[in-house]
């Protein structure tokens, strides 16, 4: 596999993840972000001049009614989509003009994703699913990948389920696998799109506790889209969106 | 990544089995058609071993129940030979090149046996057919004194019966199962060796041949005489009519038929080509069907795996690496199908199936392997490009 990063990863010294200095270091900055979906007959404004800075070690939740642009904002933060206007900066570097290859490299190194519907590959074992992001890092050996995947699974309490397949797990366990997959590459930021949306309240609490633990103990930066006010209130900062605009 | 692809394919083995079977059967069909085409192509390019141009086939019939005295036949041949435009004439048997008539027997020499076509030939036969003499000489008057039947044999028969040892002057006979003694006329004295000949059709392989000398003073009366006539270039219907009139001038009871050997060759070629073309068309249709099937299955696969594609993009895959992954998966599946096909195909050269040498089989295996990989790569290319173009944010939202 090719080297996904045309430009070398940012190797400038970063403050320790859970140090006070780290909390003031912006890891993700969105400036005047606009996103407009254009069809032949209609123009839909999904996001309108959104400005948001995510600092290292923060746990930010994004709330708002359905269709207000939460997931679109998360896709833009995750470099899965391009804004119609405005700039996105990761670690202070604007990524506007980055190529597909460079963006893929940044996603792989800096960002972990957790989805509402888990997005696990049913034909791969739990261990193989967790290893997936590391497959796009050709510098890692198979042994290293395996060790890191096992460590990530251990962190989410699923080290006994490595040979299982997603179909053999409960919803909560699947989401734990997805979190392990997001963690395995040691990203600077985890983007979670309604991670408890498909779970009952008990499972939802478990996953929320896991994410809070990762943020508090390991200093992982997390941005979470949620509909659940109670869970949003547990995070350090709450951003509210309404009709594509930031309202709080 | 290769290990990851194998893991994916193994875990989806039930879904991939259909694809692997399709590849396997395509390989087998391509190998079969390839082996036939390579064999006949190779044969076609090989020399015939004789010159069929400007050779006519003259059949003289005495009439049902009638006999043809040899002296009278010789008179006819002399008169035909004297016609302007006729170079030479030769008496032979009915199994002339490019017609549906064969006469073969099994011969033996010191434990070696071979099946060979048997042709009767007089002393002028090689002047008409222009066989390529490799060793020894054609029949001549000196052979009248021979106690054995003089024969000329083809090189392939020479190799089978005598190996690397000398063949000229050797005496062989029919392949016997019992210890009974042979009669002198059944003992064949090798006077010459000619190049291999391909007399059946343009696409047939060379077959061993034995030319037995027709004795000039043979008093046997025949019902039908088969005569080969070499004419000057450019001769046509007028000379054919003259030949027929010449025969009729000797005796009105005899009938004649004159055919051009090249016409026989072309007629036999058409007849031989029909099944080959049919087989090729069937093979082509099958391959087109398989290609469309593969294309459809891959297209469907990609539409079913949009979420996975979106996920992989989110995890750090580029569009190009997604494209390569799908191409890679198809090539791994192809390899599994081809390996199954290879396992079957290599049995043919190993067992020497259909008495063919290994070379056409090996070439057919190589051609089928290349063709299957090219077909699957072409079929996978467009769907893989499609996969690469899937927008990750859209694909992830769809589920």
UniProtKB/TrEMBL annotation, chain B:
Pfam families attached here? FtsX, MacB_PCD
Q: Name one GO cellular component term.
A: plasma membrane
In what residue span(s) does the MacB-like periplasmic core domain sit? 45-236
Subcellular location per UniProt equals: Cell membrane
Which terms in the Gene Ontology molecular function aspect does this entry carry?
Answer: transmembrane transporter activity
Which chain regions cross the lipid bilayer? 20-40, 273-302, 331-354, 360-381
Q: Which domain of life is it from?
A: Bacteria
User: Which keywords, in A-to-Z order, does the entry hold?
Assistant: Cell membrane, Membrane, Transmembrane, Transmembrane helix
Keyword check for Cytoplasm, yes or no. Answer: no
Task: Please state every residue range assigned to the domain named ABC3 transporter permease C-terminal.
Answer: 281-392
The topology of this chain with respect to the membrane is:
Multi-pass membrane protein
Q: Where does the signal peptide begin and end?
A: none
Q: What is its main location?
A: membrane
Q: Which family does it belong to?
A: Belongs to the ABC-4 integral membrane protein family.
> What is the name attached to this protein's record?
Uncharacterized protein
- Organism (species): Hymenobacter lapidarius
């Amino acid at each position: 596999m090719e080297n996904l990063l045309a430009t070398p990863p940012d190797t400038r010294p970063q403050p320790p993840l859970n140090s006070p200095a780290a909390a003031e270091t912006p890891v993700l900055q969105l400036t005047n972000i606009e996103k407009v979906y254009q069809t032949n007959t209609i123009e839909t404004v999904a996001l309108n001049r959104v400005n948001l800075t995510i600092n290292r070690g923060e746990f930010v939740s994004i709330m708002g009614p359905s269709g207000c642009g939460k997931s679109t904002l998360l896709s833009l933060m995750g470099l899965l989509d391009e804004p119609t206007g405005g700039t996105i900066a990761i670690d202070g570097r604007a990524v506007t003009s980055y190529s597909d290859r460079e963006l893929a490299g940044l996603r792989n190194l800096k960002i972990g994703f957790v989805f509402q519907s888990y997005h696990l590959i049913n034909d791969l074992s739990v261990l193989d699913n967790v290893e997936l992001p590391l497959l796009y890092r050709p510098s890692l050996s198979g042994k290293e990948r395996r060790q890191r995947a096992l460590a990530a699974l251990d962190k989410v309490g699923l080290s006994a389920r490595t040979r299982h397949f997603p179909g053999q797990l409960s919803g909560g366990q699947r989401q734990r696998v997805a979190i392990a997959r997001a963690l395995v590459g040691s990203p600077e930021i985890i983007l979670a799109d309604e991670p408890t949306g498909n779970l009952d309240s008990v499972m939802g609490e478990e996953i929320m506790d896991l994410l809070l633990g990762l943020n508090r103990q390991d200093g992982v930066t997390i941005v979470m889209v949620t509909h659940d006010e109670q869970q949003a209130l547990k995070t350090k900062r709450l951003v509210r969106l309404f009709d594509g605009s930031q309202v709080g | 990544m290769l290990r990851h692809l194998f893991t994916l394919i193994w875990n989806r083995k039930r879904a991939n089995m259909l694809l692997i079977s399709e590849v396997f059967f395509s390989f087998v069909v391509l190998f079969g058609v390839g082996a036939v085409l390579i064999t006949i192509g190779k044969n076609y390019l090989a020399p015939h071993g004789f010159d069929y141009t400007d050779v006519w086939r003259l059949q003289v019939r005495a009439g049902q129940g009638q006999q043809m005295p040899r002296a009278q036949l010789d008179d006819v041949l002399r008169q035909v030979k004297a016609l302007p435009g006729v170079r030479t004439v030769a008496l032979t048997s009915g199994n002339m090149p490019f017609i549906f008539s064969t006469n073969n027997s099994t011969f033996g020499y010191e434990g070696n046996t071979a099946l060979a076509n048997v042709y009767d030939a007089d002393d002028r036969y090689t002047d008409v057919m222009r066989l390529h003499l490799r060793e020894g000489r054609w029949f001549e008057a000196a052979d009248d004194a021979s106690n054995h039947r003089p024969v000329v044999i083809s090189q392939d028969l020479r190799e089978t019966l005598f190996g690397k040892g000398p063949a000229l002057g050797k005496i062989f006979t029919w392949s016997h199962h019992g210890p009974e003694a042979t009669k002198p006329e059944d003992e064949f004295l090798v006077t010459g060796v000619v190049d291999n000949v391909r007399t059946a059709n343009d696409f047939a392989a060379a077959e061993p041949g034995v030319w037995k000398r027709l004795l000039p003073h043979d008093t046997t009366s025949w019902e039908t005489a088969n005569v080969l006539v070499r004419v000057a270039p450019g001769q046509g219907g007028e000379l054919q009519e003259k030949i027929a009139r010449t025969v009729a001038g000797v005796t009105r009871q005899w009938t004649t038929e004159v055919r051009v050997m090249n016409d026989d060759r072309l007629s036999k070629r058409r007849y031989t080509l029909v099944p080959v073309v049919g087989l090729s068309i069937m093979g082509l249709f099958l391959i087109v069907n398989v290609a469309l099937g593969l294309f459809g299955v891959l297209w469907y696969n990609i539409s079913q795996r949009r979420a996975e594609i979106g996920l992989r993009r989110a995890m750090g895959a580029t569009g190009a690496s997604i494209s390569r992954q799908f191409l890679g998966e198809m090539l791994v599946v192809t390899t599994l199908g081809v390996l199954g096909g290879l396992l079957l195909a290599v049995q043919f050269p190993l067992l020497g199936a259909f008495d063919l040498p290994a070379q056409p089989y090996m070439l057919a295996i190589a051609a089928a392997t290349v063709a299957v990989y090219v077909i699957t790569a072409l079929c996978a290319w467009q769907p893989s490009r499609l996969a690469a173009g899937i927008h990750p944010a859209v694909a992830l939202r769809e589920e």
